[in-house]
Amino acid sequence: MSIHARTTQVIVGEPEVVEDAGLAETSAAWLQLKAAATALQALQVKDGSIPDAASHVDAHSHVARIIAGIRALAPALPHDAEYLAASVRDFERWAGEGFGIPDFLDSLQAFQPQQHRADGIRHLVVFPMYTQNGSPNRCVEAVLVEVIWPEFIAQLEAGDYGNKLFVSLRFLDFTPGYDTNSAVLFPETVAMREIPQFTWGAIFQDREAARYRRVVRAAAEITRLDLPADAARMLDDQALTEQTFVMWDIIHDRTHMRGDLPFDPFMIKQRMPYFLYSLEELRCDLTAFRECVAIQGRLSARVDALSLGEPVQPLDAAETEMLEHAKLVQYAVIFDRIFRFSITGTRVRNYDGLGGQLLFAWLHQRGVLHWTDTALSFDWENVPAAVVALGEAIDELYWRSIDRPKTAHWLAAYELVRATLTPNPASAWARGLPDDILAGAPKGYTDAVLDDEFPLSMFFEALDKKMKPVIESTAGITG
Length: 479
Prior knowledge:
The chain is an alpha+beta fold. 50% of the residues lie in helices and 10% in strands. Helix 10 (317-340) crosses helix 11.
């Protein structure tokens, strides 16, 4: 059955309704499921259980309505049949066992969205889970999503940038856990009895694109930045920006597992000074930037050769889009890092914020970014080389640290950052750690890092005051 086909379903305990799968976010089945999941959240505690027996009658009613909604929508989602059937069984078992800590491992393992990366295909996702940068509680969340997978991304992924785990999504509708800053759907957030091998990770590019457009538009006005024409075009085109973020993220995501890595790339397993996380995330973004510079150069060379009458293969439609988006990724990395990352969130070990600060200061100190007469400007011809140079400096740090002890790597990483950013005047790291810490366990090093080891510069302090309402307004935003 086509995802856009019309089907008739009966919802248990409700009047008969006609579902339009092409408009599933407005269907009675979805709205019933969403309302039931939202009501159920009010009965759950942090671990997802419902310990209050007095709430179990209502909980059973809510779960019955969730199950009815899943069954009503399932015929329009044949690619998820196994998962949706397993989801029903997990809900029935959870309710039947008295609403203890939920275990949805079976349905999680049946959900394999990376196997269905077709542009426009939809998924119904229902799990007890927390949402990163959103709700910390493992409540039942329901999300209706649509895959973003244009042909040029399929061609990119099938070539030099393979990433079989990556899924790009667009929100259609969601429960309150996603009415937040969360822009990811990760399987490790689901409540389950054991940790399996994860086979996918998803990012909501429509949310990333929408908040980018709002934040960059405001920041450009505040800083009187004269945006290049193609960068300005992104601010008026949600679909163009979504696809740009898909290209950025697919290269970023695969970079975590590639390169000369002196440590486990999944650094969440380790306890390290937060500036190490800053450098890892920035490394992946700068790799995406560098690779897009290379893609742009390679495809532009073919266009130039063709214009000179040389016997080269013309770009096909997907390659033409790839060339366009390769340039746009470069703008997106710079502007998102500088205007949003740097001043989003608290100053408590804000590793993404630090990465944005570092990129801004690096470009400023190399004379390709200027803050003159209260206006921001870039020497765009020389920006790519400066950005690539920062990526190469981080790569050099990683390569040399393969032969270093862990704490020596930490010290070297700190020196790389402080060579560009000024540390907090109260920093023990900046003054030099005492011998008892240097000779002790790594925990001593980490504990000595200040929450705001590298405070905002005067430029960012001023920008933060003007941009804070704009950034706060992006919570829950969609395309």
